[in-house]
From TrEMBL:
Keywords: DNA-binding. Pfam families: TetR_N. The keyword Signal does not apply. This is TetR/AcrR family transcriptional regulator. PANTHER family: ACREF/ENVCD OPERON REPRESSOR-RELATED, ACREF_ENVCD OPERON REPRESSOR-RELATED.
Amino acid sequence: MRGSEARQRQIQYRSERILESALELFCEKGIQETSVEEIAGKAGVGSATIYRYYSTKAELAIQSGVAYWEKIAGTYLNVADRKGYTDLTGKKQLECIMDGLKQIFEHEQAFLKYLQEFDVFVRKYGLTVERLKEYEDCIMSLKPRVIDALDKGKKDGTLSFEWSSEEVCYSLAHSVFGLMKKLSWNGSLLALNEQNGLALQVEIAVDLLVRGLTYKN
């Protein structure tokens, strides 16, 4: 039994090491430009070992994306666990979530660039919805919290909108993440003082979106 447990730990460690190495190289060089051989070298394993864990580079990219999302979400988006969160109005809860997204932009530029790179990779190789399901599920893990905040805001009167909470949730996600990914990608070409202004653009955009949901005829 102990031997079996030790083997499972070794498998888990090796799998995590491969993912970490792949993610680091994907962020540094891009998914398309990174070879499996380079990942194997960085992880300290053979290429054949990687294929035993992940059947294709696409699968490795997907699992790296899932692991990255989980790390970022756990760091910045677990707002429901914060003291006093449940007592906030719907608008304040939504603002807490949006503050987490702004922090991601300020501190996790590599993550946003990876998302942009991953989107390009998916389109180029035509990955199916079925293959992307785990990745999509990970991305949408924030959806229930956003919808709960929107529903609460509509009920307590701090938010007002004519669409369903789910429709608004999707619109917010696409708007905010789309902007953050674009600015992260293009912002890497700018001088540092110009990059500082990008965070303000995100802050203004988020503020306008939330204000738009508080407008009443």
